[in-house]
Amino acid sequence: MDSEGFETSRGAVASENRPSDIELWQALQQGQMAALGTLYDRHVGLVYSIALKTTRNTQDAEDLAQGIFLRLAQLTYDPKRGSLRTFLAVLVRSRSIDLMRSRQRQQNILQTSHLGQHSESMETPTEALDRAESTEEVRNALAQLSENQRQVLHLAYRNGLSQTEIAEQLGAPLGTVKSWARRGLLKLRQSLQDKLEGE
Asked: Whole-structure pTM over 0.70, yes or no?
Protein backbone atom coordinates (compact mmCIF):
# COMPACT_ATOMS: atom_id res chain seq x y z
CA MET A 1 0.00 0.00 0.00
CA ASP A 2 1.41 3.43 -0.92
CA SER A 3 1.65 6.25 1.60
CA GLU A 4 -1.44 8.01 0.25
CA GLY A 5 -3.48 4.83 0.61
CA PHE A 6 -2.16 4.37 4.14
CA GLU A 7 -3.15 7.91 5.13
CA THR A 8 -6.66 7.38 3.71
CA SER A 9 -7.00 4.09 5.54
CA ARG A 10 -5.75 5.55 8.79
CA GLY A 11 -8.17 8.46 8.47
CA ALA A 12 -11.06 6.06 7.95
CA VAL A 13 -10.11 4.12 11.09
CA ALA A 14 -9.81 7.35 13.08
CA SER A 15 -13.25 8.39 11.84
CA GLU A 16 -14.76 5.04 12.82
CA ASN A 17 -13.21 5.28 16.29
CA ARG A 18 -14.51 8.81 16.80
CA PRO A 19 -17.21 8.73 19.49
CA SER A 20 -20.62 10.08 18.57
CA ASP A 21 -22.25 13.00 20.37
CA ILE A 22 -24.64 10.61 22.06
CA GLU A 23 -21.76 8.44 23.31
CA LEU A 24 -20.00 11.54 24.62
CA TRP A 25 -23.21 12.78 26.23
CA GLN A 26 -23.66 9.44 27.99
CA ALA A 27 -20.03 9.51 29.13
CA LEU A 28 -20.55 13.02 30.50
CA GLN A 29 -23.61 11.83 32.41
CA GLN A 30 -21.39 9.19 34.01
CA GLY A 31 -18.99 11.84 35.22
CA GLN A 32 -16.35 11.52 32.51
CA MET A 33 -15.45 15.19 32.21
CA ALA A 34 -13.05 14.56 29.31
CA ALA A 35 -16.15 14.10 27.15
CA LEU A 36 -17.09 17.72 27.85
CA GLY A 37 -13.90 18.95 26.22
CA THR A 38 -14.62 17.00 23.04
CA LEU A 39 -18.22 18.23 22.89
CA TYR A 40 -17.01 21.78 23.50
CA ASP A 41 -14.51 21.58 20.65
CA ARG A 42 -17.15 20.19 18.31
CA HIS A 43 -19.96 22.59 19.01
CA VAL A 44 -18.69 25.81 20.65
CA GLY A 45 -18.36 27.49 17.24
CA LEU A 46 -22.04 26.95 16.50
CA VAL A 47 -23.18 27.96 19.98
CA TYR A 48 -21.04 31.10 20.01
CA SER A 49 -22.10 32.19 16.51
CA ILE A 50 -25.81 31.90 17.34
CA ALA A 51 -25.34 33.80 20.60
CA LEU A 52 -23.38 36.53 18.83
CA LYS A 53 -25.95 36.85 16.06
CA THR A 54 -28.73 37.24 18.62
CA THR A 55 -27.04 39.48 21.20
CA ARG A 56 -24.63 41.30 18.86
CA ASN A 57 -22.22 41.47 21.78
CA THR A 58 -19.04 39.38 21.90
CA GLN A 59 -18.85 39.31 25.72
CA ASP A 60 -22.47 38.19 26.04
CA ALA A 61 -21.92 35.54 23.36
CA GLU A 62 -18.83 34.22 25.14
CA ASP A 63 -20.60 34.17 28.52
CA LEU A 64 -23.63 32.38 27.10
CA ALA A 65 -21.52 29.77 25.31
CA GLN A 66 -19.38 29.15 28.39
CA GLY A 67 -22.40 28.93 30.64
CA ILE A 68 -24.13 26.36 28.47
CA PHE A 69 -21.13 24.06 28.30
CA LEU A 70 -20.33 24.45 32.01
CA ARG A 71 -23.86 23.30 32.83
CA LEU A 72 -24.14 20.77 30.04
CA ALA A 73 -24.04 17.77 32.37
CA GLN A 74 -27.06 19.13 34.27
CA LEU A 75 -29.17 19.90 31.20
CA THR A 76 -32.06 17.69 30.15
CA TYR A 77 -31.30 16.33 26.70
CA ASP A 78 -33.19 13.42 25.11
CA PRO A 79 -31.29 11.89 22.15
CA LYS A 80 -34.58 10.46 20.86
CA ARG A 81 -35.86 13.96 20.17
CA GLY A 82 -33.00 15.10 17.97
CA SER A 83 -29.28 15.61 17.69
CA LEU A 84 -27.25 17.26 20.44
CA ARG A 85 -26.17 19.91 17.95
CA THR A 86 -29.78 20.88 17.28
CA PHE A 87 -30.51 20.83 21.03
CA LEU A 88 -27.59 23.21 21.68
CA ALA A 89 -28.63 25.52 18.84
CA VAL A 90 -32.19 25.82 20.16
CA LEU A 91 -30.96 26.22 23.74
CA VAL A 92 -28.48 29.02 23.06
CA ARG A 93 -30.96 30.90 20.91
CA SER A 94 -33.53 30.70 23.70
CA ARG A 95 -30.99 31.80 26.34
CA SER A 96 -29.83 34.67 24.14
CA ILE A 97 -33.37 35.93 23.63
CA ASP A 98 -34.05 35.64 27.37
CA LEU A 99 -30.95 37.71 28.08
CA MET A 100 -31.97 40.44 25.66
CA ARG A 101 -35.49 40.58 27.09
CA SER A 102 -34.08 40.75 30.61
CA ARG A 103 -31.83 43.64 29.63
CA GLN A 104 -34.78 45.46 28.07
CA ARG A 105 -36.87 44.97 31.23
CA GLN A 106 -34.00 46.29 33.36
CA GLN A 107 -33.68 49.33 31.13
CA ASN A 108 -37.42 50.00 31.36
CA ILE A 109 -37.34 49.73 35.16
CA LEU A 110 -34.36 52.05 35.33
CA GLN A 111 -36.05 54.67 33.18
CA THR A 112 -39.27 54.59 35.22
CA SER A 113 -37.31 54.98 38.47
CA HIS A 114 -36.33 58.54 37.37
CA LEU A 115 -32.74 57.58 36.75
CA GLY A 116 -33.45 57.75 33.05
CA GLN A 117 -36.08 60.49 32.98
CA HIS A 118 -33.92 62.79 30.82
CA SER A 119 -32.14 60.06 28.89
CA GLU A 120 -32.44 59.77 25.16
CA SER A 121 -34.24 56.74 23.75
CA MET A 122 -30.96 55.01 22.86
CA GLU A 123 -29.30 55.53 26.25
CA THR A 124 -28.18 52.33 27.90
CA PRO A 125 -28.80 51.50 31.59
CA THR A 126 -25.08 51.93 32.29
CA GLU A 127 -25.03 55.39 30.71
CA ALA A 128 -28.16 56.36 32.62
CA LEU A 129 -26.71 55.23 35.94
CA ASP A 130 -23.35 56.87 35.24
CA ARG A 131 -25.12 60.15 34.53
CA ALA A 132 -27.58 59.86 37.39
CA GLU A 133 -25.00 58.95 40.01
CA SER A 134 -23.34 62.31 39.44
CA THR A 135 -26.19 64.01 41.28
CA GLU A 136 -26.19 64.31 45.03
CA GLU A 137 -29.83 63.24 45.23
CA VAL A 138 -29.17 59.89 43.60
CA ARG A 139 -26.02 59.29 45.63
CA ASN A 140 -28.03 59.92 48.79
CA ALA A 141 -30.79 57.62 47.58
CA LEU A 142 -28.28 54.85 46.82
CA ALA A 143 -26.76 55.31 50.27
CA GLN A 144 -30.12 54.41 51.82
CA LEU A 145 -30.11 50.97 50.19
CA SER A 146 -28.69 47.91 51.89
CA GLU A 147 -25.24 46.72 50.83
CA ASN A 148 -26.80 43.75 49.02
CA GLN A 149 -29.25 45.95 47.14
CA ARG A 150 -26.52 48.38 46.06
CA GLN A 151 -24.28 45.52 44.98
CA VAL A 152 -26.97 43.88 42.85
CA LEU A 153 -27.91 47.16 41.15
CA HIS A 154 -24.24 47.95 40.55
CA LEU A 155 -23.59 44.55 38.95
CA ALA A 156 -26.74 44.79 36.84
CA TYR A 157 -26.37 48.31 35.53
CA ARG A 158 -22.64 48.99 35.68
CA ASN A 159 -21.44 45.51 34.68
CA GLY A 160 -24.47 44.51 32.62
CA LEU A 161 -24.88 41.15 34.36
CA SER A 162 -28.14 39.21 34.30
CA GLN A 163 -29.74 38.27 37.62
CA THR A 164 -28.64 34.68 37.09
CA GLU A 165 -25.05 35.81 36.56
CA ILE A 166 -25.24 38.01 39.65
CA ALA A 167 -26.54 35.09 41.71
CA GLU A 168 -23.61 32.98 40.56
CA GLN A 169 -21.09 35.71 41.26
CA LEU A 170 -22.44 36.44 44.74
CA GLY A 171 -23.12 32.80 45.58
CA ALA A 172 -26.70 33.69 46.47
CA PRO A 173 -29.99 32.02 45.43
CA LEU A 174 -31.54 33.52 42.31
CA GLY A 175 -34.77 34.28 44.18
CA THR A 176 -32.83 36.25 46.78
CA VAL A 177 -31.03 38.28 44.12
CA LYS A 178 -34.34 39.06 42.41
CA SER A 179 -35.75 40.18 45.75
CA TRP A 180 -32.75 42.44 46.44
CA ALA A 181 -33.03 43.98 42.98
CA ARG A 182 -36.79 44.53 43.21
CA ARG A 183 -36.65 46.03 46.71
CA GLY A 184 -33.63 48.13 45.84
CA LEU A 185 -35.31 49.62 42.78
CA LEU A 186 -38.54 50.28 44.65
CA LYS A 187 -36.68 51.98 47.50
CA LEU A 188 -34.56 53.97 45.07
CA ARG A 189 -37.60 55.10 43.12
CA GLN A 190 -39.44 56.04 46.31
CA SER A 191 -36.47 58.03 47.62
CA LEU A 192 -36.17 59.95 44.37
CA GLN A 193 -39.93 60.50 44.18
CA ASP A 194 -39.98 61.89 47.74
CA LYS A 195 -37.14 64.22 46.81
CA LEU A 196 -38.96 65.46 43.70
CA GLU A 197 -42.22 65.99 45.60
CA GLY A 198 -40.38 67.86 48.36
CA GLU A 199 -38.94 70.40 45.97
From this structure: no
